[in-house]
Amino acid sequence: MQINSTSQNTSLDTQAIASKQAAQNTTQSKTGSNLIATSQSSNSDNVTISIQATELSSKAQSNSKEADTLPAKPALPNEGEKVENYVEYRKAKAQYQIYSDMAGIATGNSKGMSASTAYYLSNNDEARAAVVDSKAQQQQVSAMQSYAKTTQDIDGWY
Asked: Which helix (H) or strand (E) covers residue 92, if one does?
């Protein structure tokens, strides 16, 4: 089996290397090695393949079967136990974060909310209404406290 690739725009250095390789290949075939050597013109690249490689190639072509199709639903490693446990862990973590954020909102101690809480509130009308009511109540308390403080300051002036 011979693979030739001819290039018409090769440089002089490339042509010199190709001619040296051709000379080495003919030397190997004269020494009795298991290689088949071919020599071509100086404008081509030569590839030498051993007799064993050609035999393996012909066997592989004669024994080739059609490719097996993959199953419609791939099986998870370890029957999916690790994946299922990880999914359960992530769900529990997100649920805890939501509960923590909701408790912070209800007590007025929250400095913000996580993305999972925002997603939960965007899809749950009752929870969103409760959060809005809680924030409105906190704002009313804050307004009453500042009114009381301002009134005390004014009473101190007179």
From this structure: helix 81-107
